[in-house]
Amino acid sequence: MPGIGVRYDLTTREHRRMSVVAHRDGARTVSAYRDDDPDACALSVRLTAGESAALVDALLPDHHSPNVLVTNELGLLAERIELSSTSYWNGRVLGDTRMRTETGASIVAVLRRAGAIPSPAPDFRLAGGDTLIVIGTREGVEAAAAILGRE
């Protein structure tokens, strides 16, 4: 698109047509087209360079992990951390990890074959194969994963 920028077209797996125009000034225009008339635009949104960067981060975050459950603009995230059978913490009580004191992150639930244990108490006994739901900052959750991964 001479003088404007570059247009990228794509068709989704559901046969929806979309386009993104990358403007020379850093802005982007994201458009989606109607199913019944692929030449008719159903939605067009112009994004500033900053808004485009935020959308890219939401679509493909650097910290993406299939274990991340939720992340928000406050810098908090919820992540699943699996406790291995060889973990130092296998058979020990949750309070011994000193998780909140050491990392600022909280273990808000434990998933076990028998079901979910919400808000486990400090005397809750961990077991290999448990999946712990941890909430905190990125740094806190990473520190929690390092502690829980200890063998």
From TrEMBL:
PROSITE patterns: RCK_C. This is Cation:proton antiporter regulatory subunit. InterPro entries: AAE_transporter, KhtT, KhtT-like_N, RCK_C, RCK_C_sf. GO terms for molecular function: monoatomic cation transmembrane transporter activity. It comes from Streptomyces spongiae. GO terms for biological process: potassium ion transport. Residues 66-150 form the RCK C-terminal domain. It comes from the Bacteria.
